[in-house]
Structures are given as C-alpha cells and as structure tokens.
Amino acid sequence: MIEDSVDAWTAFCAHQDPAILSADQNYINQYEDIVALYAKLASKSAPVEAKGSKSLPVKLRFRKAGLRAMKAIAESEFLASETASQMHQILPMLLDNIYHSTGSYLHDLEHVDEEKVEQEKEGAIRRRQSYVVPRSRDTDNADVVAAAGSIEAADRMAELETSLIALQALKKIYTSAPRAQLRLATVEILNFIASRIDAKEHFPTETVIPLQSGSWPCVLFGLICVWAPVQDRHVILLTAVEELVKSPVQDDVFERQYVLATVIGWLLSSDINFIGLSTMDVLVGLLQHILALLQSHSNQSSKFLDRSGAQSAVSEDPSHSIEPPTDSTADVNFTNPPSPAFTQLLEQLQRCVGYLAVHTYYADQVSDMVAAVLSRLRPSPFTTAALRQSSLSELRHGSVDVTGSSSSLGKRPTKESHFSSEMA
Q: How far apart are CA 347 and CA 87, in angstroms?
C-alpha cells in the first residue's frame, strides 16, 4: 500500500501550485507531516519497524518507496517555496543512502546513472521495427545479473538501485533549486559530514590535499559543484567557509573544523571554476579564524605563564628556602604546547589560504591578498618584552657599544612573530 501511494504523491507534487503551499499555514503543516513520514521510510541508519520488515528485501522496499517520494519532491516546484524544514528532512536521508567509506562508490553510482540516461535516450529515439519476433514472455525488464547470481548479489543490486534513486534526487536538487535553497542544502550536507565523517578514517594524516581526492566528502562536494549552475557554484564554497568561520574555537570541535577545512582546501585546489567568488571575503574569513585560533592558544599560554609566575614569586620570598636548580628544571618550557588537533587544523587553514591564490579572477588579486596578510602582521609582545629585557641586561654588563658603533646594527632577533602571537 505504501508503494502504491508513491505514485499518487508523485502526481500531487507534479501538479501542485507552490503558491498555495506558501499561503496556507495549515496546509504547510500537513505537507511537512507527509514529508516527514516518507523521510522516515527512507532512513537507512534507522529503518522503519513494522510487521514483516525484518528481512533485508522488505527493508529495501520501504527505503525505495521513501526515496521515490523524496525524488518526486526534488523534481517538483516545491523547492522554490521552502518551508524551512523541507531540506532538513530530505537531505540527511538522501546522504544516508549514498554514504560509503570511499568516494569511488559515488563515482560508480554516477557512472550507472549516466548509463541509464543513455539507455533511455536510445530507447526514445529507437525506430519502430518492421517485424516483431514473437516472445512467450516479457523479458525486456528482466535483470540478468541479479537472476544469474545468488541472493546476496540480488540484494547488492537492490541496494545499488536504492542508492541510485537517492543520488538522482540529490542531483536534481542541485541542478534546479534556486540559490537560496542551494545554501540550505549545502548547510545540511555540512552538518551531515560534521556528524558522520571521521577525520582519521577519511583523511589520514600521511596524505596531502591531492591524495584526498578519493575521499567521500571531497568527491561529494566535487559532484554537487559540477551539478550546480556555473553562476551559483561559489555559493557552495562560501557556505562552507561561513560554517567554518562561525564555529566556536574549542578543543572538542577542532576535528570537525578540520574536516570542513579539508573539504574547502580540496575545492580550492581543484580545477572547478567558481565564477563570482569573492576571494577577499574568503581570505578575510580564513585569516580571522586563524587569528581566533592563535588568540585562544595565546590566552591559554598566558594563564599557564601567570601560574608559573606566581610560583616563581613564592620561591623568591626570603621566608622560603631556595634550592639550586637541577638539570631537569633548568630547561623548563613555560609555554602551553598546542594539541595535535590544533596544529593539524592550523596547518590545513594555511593550505586553504595558499590554494585560494589559484582562483585569480582579476589582475591585482594576488597583490591584494598579500597586502591583506601583511596588514595583519604585528610584533609579538612576548618577543618585544624579551628583547627589551635582553637590551637592559647588556647595558648593565657593558656588552653594548653605547657610543653608536655600527657593529651592533647588524644584530636582529633570531625569531620572527606574526599575527601578534608567539606561536604564529
């Protein structure tokens, strides 16, 4: 009965006026309830629990019915009248059905979809035969591969067909949805990636950006950028950068931010053309996030130094006995070392800034980017204070030529600082 209701739902989506949907609030609530029911059927991670739905073929039939309903929504004009929760209900279910550990699975689905499109075109233009061979049974729609294989092979074919419907629905959203809905759809994809993707599994630490082209998140974003209209592709990249920049600077979200930064870096390093992209806005956003990361680490280091200074003040009190420093305490590093996740994220953001220079859309873009970076350079207060203390010490011991000799002009601090941070 559920499978038969999908045909009625498809006809409803094809002939319904979106203006009516956006005018009546009660009508919108009923529509969203139906979408939520079909979305629940299409879920792969939380399949519907019904009588007789324990076997895999039955579960696949439920999912296929729900995905067909999602595809009908994607092919209709309902996307032009977003009801605020429509994308939130549809996109996670579509992504759940095409998720895989490697990006080659998406390439295989795309290849199968292209073959089906070509077969449909050939069938549409095939001329009528002058003679017909009589057949005892209808074998045109028979699946030879599934019939010749085992039950497991038939289940794999059904799973592939189900995933193909989800990919076709996602492709239809990005090829026909307006720009505002593209932004909402991209936010939902980013939320799904942030909650589902494990950075250690999809982005091994020994790989670099060019070697991450086969990862599932990068392949997915490459496909949706190709599907989207050329004039709207930059919206996908800008949305990813905005989601990264507005993320809180906390240790528990560094891995999530690293996943987003890796996807952004791969998009910038690819040959996808982002016409209309404001490179300076992206650069400023990335620099602000880098500065926020460095500032957070600087604050943590300052707290560590304050505690160390309080301990040293107590040790200098005459009432306390002073012990001679040992070899283990002579070379104490009074800085808070960054975590591996912090360092990994910071290095990835630096790569994003470097790959941004690949997308040059006007003559002075690179020089403007360099000027924007140079304008944010400041001397570190730690280095300045250390240099001042060293100069006073040399004056006390008479090691500085106070007569104005030019021999001391060649001396430069051996350590440079950027963005007003000792770590930078």
A: 33
